[in-house]
Amino acid sequence: MAISLDNFEAEIESNYDRKSELKSFDDSKIGVKGLVDAGVAKIPRIFIHDHSKISDKPCARNNKHSIPIIDLGGVHTDASRRRQTIDQLGEACQKWGFFQLISHGIPAHVLDGMVDGILQFHEQDIEVKKQFFSRDEKRKVSYNSNFDLYQTKAASWRDSLYCAMSPNPPSPEELPAVCRDITIHYLKKATNLGLTLFELVSEALGLDPNHLKNLGCAEGIFFVGHYYPACPEPGMTLGISKHSDSGFLTILLQDRLGGLQVLHEDQWVDVTPVPGALVVNLGDLLQIMSNDKFKSVYHRVIAKNVGPRISVACFFGTHFEQGTSSSSRLYGPIKQLLSKDNPPIYKETTVRDYVAQVYTKGLDGITGLEYFKL
């Protein structure tokens, strides 16, 4: 008796044990890099994304849309330059939720050293790297592939080093030796830059410069070093799927390979690397606090057949860190921004509860904001 193609495909589907494949990959602790090193020509099924998710929106093909570039030169010494920068930043936060920073005060050799440090971590001997492998969210330093491996419908083509760096940093000995010194050095500079950005964002909202800092927005810092190996079938997967960041603000250092895209006016727009620049984007909690005046927007990383691509993200306020004033503080629309014509759109939440919501569902392409609307 003839068997229809539909029935045949259904039978194959019924015999596919996704949980077993996920566990086998995870237990190997080799990450995506290990698959590439083994010479895979076809990506494992757990990494294959629904094509409609990859091609959900068109990609911008011209220069009409480009991420704003903001020059921080003079913001601490020139009042008129500071006012001009605040106006530019405010416009970028309203229209894009993303911008690139130049003249930010972090030397190029520090940026290059940080990228190289993450590259060296991921490319060191696998037996050394395995010592850091963990999915324990309470560990201060860990390495794995896809934090949401068991929640997401399709894994993404990346490995990551995670470090909870503030307010209770790990001891230097807990950090990987291969990138220890540069990580500590870079974090000090990124932290100072973050404090400046919270001042400027506060002023762009019409608030006192210290408003967001006084609310604890700069207390918690979670550091992630991503490694995106070259992919043999880049059109079938993603480096990171569509998502928005859950915290207050993110400072991203990306290498020159590119791949980051932002969803703007219903099109995916490339965040073209600018030498010496840092990428900054707002998180969901700042959109809540601004009552939708400022935006936390969807972004993703496409897979490429060249690599590896390296990026380093400092997430302000996005982890299960205990011992901070912000871990139990309720965050909602800032009262000074509300009025009869601008009533609150969101209910209050703690950082911990918001992040837990995101971790529970994984990067499923749906912002956590939807769960907290009034």
UniProtKB/TrEMBL annotation:
<protein>
    <recommendedName>
        <fullName>Fe2OG dioxygenase domain-containing protein</fullName>
    </recommendedName>
</protein>
<dbReference type="InterPro" id="IPR044861">
    <property type="entry name" value="IPNS-like_FE2OG_OXY"/>
</dbReference>
<dbReference type="InterPro" id="IPR026992">
    <property type="entry name" value="DIOX_N"/>
</dbReference>
<dbReference type="Pfam" id="PF14226">
    <property type="entry name" value="DIOX_N"/>
</dbReference>
<dbReference type="InterPro" id="IPR027443">
    <property type="entry name" value="IPNS-like_sf"/>
</dbReference>
<keyword id="KW-0408">Iron</keyword>
<keyword id="KW-0479">Metal-binding</keyword>
<keyword id="KW-0560">Oxidoreductase</keyword>
<dbReference type="InterPro" id="IPR005123">
    <property type="entry name" value="Oxoglu/Fe-dep_dioxygenase_dom"/>
</dbReference>
<feature type="domain" description="Fe2OG dioxygenase">
    <location>
        <begin position="217"/>
        <end position="318"/>
    </location>
</feature>
<dbReference type="Pfam" id="PF03171">
    <property type="entry name" value="2OG-FeII_Oxy"/>
</dbReference>
<comment type="similarity">
    <text>Belongs to the iron/ascorbate-dependent oxidoreductase family.</text>
</comment>
